Amino acid sequence: MANEDLKLKVAKEALKYVKDGMVVGLGSGSTAALFIRELGNKIQEEDLTVFGIPTSFEAKMLAMQYEIPLVSLDEYDVDIAFDGADEVEEKTLFLIKGGGGCHTQEKIVDYNAKEFIVLVDESKLVKKLGEKFPIPVEVIPMSYRVVMKALTELGGEPVIRLGERKRGPVITDNGNMIIDVFMKNIDDPIELEKEINNIPGVVENGIFTKVDKVLVGTKKGTVSLNRNKNKHLTL
């Protein structure tokens, strides 16, 4: 079964958690995009009152396309947030996110939700964070050199993320730059998340340690990984 099929399965599974009257955090990325589409269909078919808070310009445009009414954190709290991930540490449910450059707004919405559920296919599961992906760090442009120096002192190998089909660095929705930090041994993600964010000039980093549930699309079906529970539940 192709990864796209697994992503669609888990996106549809996530709809079971959405109830009438909810304010839903709308994540960014390929799996989150499928969820937004399916949520729009569910709202229209079942005539639900559901509001969305997008985590990126991409998520906002998709929500508008699929006729999901949008609100903001200025107005409402988030009942439940759904988002994707680049890596999920299976034992702890810690994540690396930000391959699309949206992790700052994602973390603001996801961390302030009453429940945060991550949607991935099985290829995203790892034994230890950092196996496949670097940690994205959003930085204020004037600080990039001193931030890179500090990240090196933390044991990382920082690289400025460059644009594709565009000269120069990637610029986020917030007008900042992204530094990708390669780290071979992430032994304490909770502490590292704090340490990186304490560097002057850093806006936010892509380590996510506050996750309630991960829905994983596998060839055998959708599996739920729950925080503080070392067992899998086949749905």
Arrangement of strands in the largest sheet = 2-1-3-6-13-14-15
Shape: globular
The span between the termini is: 18 Å
Instruction: Quote the average pLDDT.
Output: 93
Instruction: Give the proportion of residues in helices.
Output: 25-40%
Uncertain ranges = 230-235
Structure description:
- It is an enzyme of class 5 (isomerase).
- Pathway: Carbohydrate degradation; pentose phosphate pathway; D-ribose 5-phosphate from D-ribulose 5-phosphate (non-oxidative stage): step 1/1.
- InterPro entries: NagB/RpiA_transferase-like (IPR037171), Ribose5P_isomerase_typA_subgr (IPR020672), Ribose5P_isomerase_type_A (IPR004788).
- 46% of the residues are buried.
- By secondary structure, the chain is of the alpha/beta class.
- A hairpin with a 5-residue loop joins strand 4 (87-89) and strand 5 (95-96).
- The longest helix has 17 residues, at 30-46.
- It has helices spanning 3-14, 30-46, 57-65, 103-111, 144-153, 189-197, and strands spanning 23-26, 51-54, 78-83, 87-89, 95-96, 113-121, 125-126, 135-139, 157-160, 177-182, 202-205, 207-208, 213-218, 221-226, 232-234.
- The model is unreliable at 230-235 (pLDDT under 50).
- The radius of gyration is 17 Å and the shape is globular.
- Helix 1 crosses helix 2 (30-46).
- It contains six helices and 15 strands.
- The strands form three sheets. It has a seven-stranded mixed β-sheet. Strands 7-4-5-12 form a four-stranded mixed β-sheet, with helices on one face.
